[in-house]
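User: I'll paste a sequence; please echo it back and then give the predicted structure.

Assistant: Echoing your sequence first, then the prediction.
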Amino acid sequence: GCGNSALSHDLYELGYTDVTSIDFSPACIAAMRARYARCPGLRWAVMDIRALAFPDASFDVVLEKGTLDVLMVEETDPWDVSPQAAAAMRRVLAEVSRVLRPGGCFISITFAQPHFRKPHYAQEAFGWSLRHTACGDGDAGAFHYFLYVMRKG
């Protein structure tokens, strides 16, 4: 779910020149391909996060920034997630685990607090460790976001 975020290009500019970005929207991917056509290491693909079209163990790093939040957008009680949302989250995380190489990292950036997100991430079936930290500028009125790092193996 890269959307129209400049994150992929920012990573490219920092020297990460082998970046694959996906989104469900063909229009979005077409726009991003056109916008960053001058960056040969950036690849764009229309894809559903629940059924990734990549071979097993394809990536050293999988990064998502708010994409998984979409799976929870219709939930009315974050303490009691519907079976459908929980199943969708499990499906996506199983796909992420599948495409990660041993030793690879899954990085998730979200506003979802640990007591809501950790039960989804910390499942033995995914074969990864889990760490998290709160990020933000320290202002009392500011929202914090959370960085979760899962390492496979």
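The chain has two domains: 1-47, 56-152. The mean pLDDT is 94.
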